[in-house]
């Protein structure tokens, strides 16, 4: 039985979004000569510019004006903005300091971090199999910590910052486009101020760079907006279970890039830790898929 056209298009949109996110190391590696903070600042500035163009084309500004009487909403987004900035900065630093594998690990364990936060923060009751998944992932992290002699802080920082970010956005009233616009708008004064300070100190990589490098930095805006819009279009058209499986496209691509293109070490005892985490993810995904199949009768 063929998939309905809307579902098929939704799966394609979501797959493209996760593929773009998974290939982000290729982009950030091209900017290795630029400091992570400057890359982050340009990402904020150019993302806001792209969002402004989209909102202008859609004539969709009323929600922004209405926020002047909703300080609690703005405060919630200020918190999510801080988490998003921390996530972006950690990821950029990791990629450009040859920690692509650690970055991929963060997004592999993120779904299980979200499940754990749902239990600890929202009071949701986890099913036994979900607890098994969380324990397996925790064992994998513990094994990697023991082998390396230190916590995999990059992976944990990415997983928990994005986990708490998702937790805040889960109960936020704005959509993906509006939410990212507000977040970049809140970061914009800091980002622009930092870029201005770099220029005043003659330390701006953007001003000293070639035209090609300047265009690369400006490309951060479209590269931030495009996968977000594709993800939003896909998420509305396909079941959450399929979306959950597709999310592993991104860290898998990052892992492959780290191992095969950037030759980061991935062998021996380190693989065992990843395997424990992957088994936890497989158990979690399979259990969710089977529950969905039991609850959803097959269409005629």
Automatic annotation (TrEMBL):
Bilayer topology annotation: Multi-pass membrane protein
Main localization category: membrane
Top-rank taxon, per record: Bacteria
All copies of domain EamA, residue ranges: 10-145
Residues passing through the membrane, by range: 12-28, 40-57, 77-94, 100-122, 129-146, 152-168, 180-199, 205-230, 242-262, 268-286
The entry's keywords: Cell membrane, Membrane, Transmembrane, Transmembrane helix, Transport
Location in the cell: Cell membrane
Pfam family, one: EamA
Listed InterPro entries: EamA_dom, EmrE-like, RarD
Family named by the database record: Belongs to the EamA transporter family.
Protein name: Protein RarD
Organism listed in the record: Ralstonia condita
Originating gene: rarD
């Amino acid at each position: 039985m063929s998939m309905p056209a809307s579902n098929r298009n939704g799966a394609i949109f979501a797959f493209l979004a996760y593929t773009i996110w998974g290939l982000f190391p290729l982009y950030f590696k091209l900017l290795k000569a630029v400091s992570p903070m400057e890359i982050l600042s340009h990402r904020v500035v150019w993302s806001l510019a792209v969002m402004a163009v989209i909102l202008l084309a859609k004539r969709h500004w009323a929600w922004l004006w209405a926020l002047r009487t909703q300080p609690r909403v703005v405060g919630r987004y200020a918190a999510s903005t801080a988490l998003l900035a921390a996530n972006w900065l950690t990821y950029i630093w990791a990629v450009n300091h040859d920690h692509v594998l650690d970055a991929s690990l963060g997004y592999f364990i993120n779904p299980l971090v979200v499940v754990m936060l749902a239990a600890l923060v929202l009071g949701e009751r986890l099913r036994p199999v979900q607890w098994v998944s969380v324990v397996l992932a925790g064992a994998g992290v513990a094994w990697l910590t023991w082998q390396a002699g230190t916590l995999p802080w990059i992976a944990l920082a990415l997983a928990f910052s994005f986990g708490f970010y998702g937790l805040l956005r889960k109960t936020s009233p704005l959509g993906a486009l509006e939410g990212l616009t507000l977040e970049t708008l809140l970061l914009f004064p800091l980002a622009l101020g930092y870029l201005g300070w770099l220029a005043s100190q003659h330390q701006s990589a953007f001003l000293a760079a070639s035209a090609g490098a300047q265009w690369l930095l400006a490309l951060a805006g479209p590269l931030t907006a495009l996968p977000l819009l594709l993800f939003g279009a896909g998420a509305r058209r396909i079941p959450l279970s399929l979306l959950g499986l597709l999310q592993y496209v991104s860290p898998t691509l990052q892992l492959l890039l780290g191992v095969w293109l950037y030759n980061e070490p991935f062998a021996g005892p380190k693989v065992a830790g990843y395997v424990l985490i992957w088994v936890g993810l497989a158990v979690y995904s399979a259990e969710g898929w089977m529950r969905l199949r039991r609850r959803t009768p097959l269409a005629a």
